[in-house]
Amino acid sequence: MTADYLTLNRTGDKMPIRGFGCWKIDTKDAEETIYQAIKTGYRLFDGACDYGNEVEVGRGIRKAIDEGLVKREDLFIVTKLWNTFHSKNHVRAAFDRQLKDSGLEYFDLYLIHFPVPLHYVSPADNYPPGWYVGDAKSIAFERSPIHECWAELEKLVDAKLTRNIGIANFNCQAILDLLTYARIKPAVLQIELHPYLPQERLVKWVREQDIHITAYSSFGPTSYVDLTDSGKSYTSLLEHADVKSVAEKHSVSAGQVLLRWALDREFAVIPKSVHSGRMESNLDIMNIKFDAEDNKTLDSLKTNQRFNDPMTYGFNLPLFD
């Protein structure tokens, strides 16, 4: 593909395909990291309530805008509704908190983070709330149906507080159910995608519904080594011999190969790095061209191994089964 953006349904907004993820950026580093990413050339930033750094990310964005590096309309800011705020009584308040924390007047895309309605936790008690209520050892669900939650997101669009809405970590059945009642169709589905887990059938079906795809965890287990045993037991795609052989062939890094693999499948990507050199290389992927042999090599890595699975964190929630 040659276009540097995806055109979203309904609004026609152009979402950059090369974005910057805000997960696991420490609050002490976030402001400067985002500011430097904007200077490097990133225009899409993917955040979430659950990442716990929206205030600092917002400061980095505001710094770049205030210094005239970019205008607000040059940026595409994504964030997500956390599981504990799915109730129709809590969506707007949660959103308003996120918008205030970010120091912005609107978001470009607002996603439901997981199709998982957890018991409400007041921000006054714990923010961001995480998966557990208080000292509980198991997750607690509440009766907050997605159709009510989605209707509240549609109201945010009507109020011009977010231009687009979408979903993350939804499977086909959850999406199909949503499409039976959605007044505003999701613009984007964000899911784990990499050569170990290409999810071809889901991707094909979602595209047929006119919903675009954002791929997260493009480097496979790398982000999960400190979180799950599966992250430790699988070879990092950045160190995989086959990925490195393709990288050497094209005189690029393994990370660039994995991001280009995603772009060739028309996914937006959201890698992150606090190092300026890797920021630049993760962005410099438009001119890499794979041949049939390269694609065969990368396609052969498929194992269907998923790393961001609630079951691997000890939650009794087989979300993707």
From TrEMBL:
Site (Lowers pKa of active site Tyr): 80
Domain of life: Eukaryota
Active site residues of this protein: 51 (proton donor)
Keyword Calcium: no
InterPro entries: AKR (IPR020471), Aldo/ket_reductase_CS (IPR018170), NAD(P)_OxRdtase_dom_sf (IPR036812), NADP_OxRdtase_dom (IPR023210)
Oxidoreductase as UniProt keyword: yes
NADP-dependent oxidoreductase domain boundaries: 23-301
Entry protein name: NADP-dependent oxidoreductase domain-containing protein
